Amino acid sequence: MADVFEGTPTSSLQSKWIWFAGLGVLLLVCGLIALGNLMLATVVSVYYVGMLMLFGGVIYLVHAFQVRGWDHVLFWMLSGLLYVLATFVNPILTSAALTLFLSLALVIAGVFRTWVGMRMKPVKGWRWIVASGVITALAGFVIALGWPVNSLWILGLFLAADLIVQGSTMIAFGLGIRS
């Protein structure tokens, strides 16, 4: 049989199909729970990002004592403290900032994808890329128009949608490699 992943025979994946399907069911259930309470899912996602920022802030603080010169130490220490303080001071403000950043990222990605699709014009299927870009940019605009009120639920909605899609994908993959 052909290799699915480099160095991983298909038969070893087939014997693990139930684990992929089980993981898919778990992700799907978590996604449905998140969909049931979008505000809680938003808070969870903000604290997840906060933990990453806290880790980054600690790394900055450690790095501050590794550099030479007090002016550099103060700069790195201030950067680290700002990361640590921004993490848990105000989760609602953090969710508003992350939602605004998400909307801007979607608009930029959508415009870029539309531009790329237009440049592919003679190639068959270029309209799909343009449509994808327009939809992405519109999603960013809609999020920006509802900002900051939608900051309470939009991140939770994205988390729920991602968990549902990933769960469904894992279930389909597990069932697909079963036979």
Summarize the entry for a quick read.
The chain is an all-alpha fold and 179 residues long. Helices cover 82% and strands 3% of the residues.
List keywords for this structure.
2 strands, about 180 residues, 7 helices, mainly alpha, about 80% helix, two-stranded antiparallel ribbon
- Uncertain runs are none
Strand order within the widest beta sheet:
1-2
Kindly state the percentage of residues in helix: over 70%
Biggest sheet details: 2 strands, antiparallel
Provide mean pLDDT, rounded: 85
Amino- and carboxy-terminal Cα gap: 13 Å
Q: What's the count of strands?
A: 2
What is the CA-atom radius of gyration, in angstroms?
22 Å
Query: Structural class of the helices, strands and pairings?
Result: mainly alpha
Portion of residues in beta strands equals under 5%
The general outline is extended
Order of helices and strands: EEHHHHHHH
Contiguous helical run count = 7
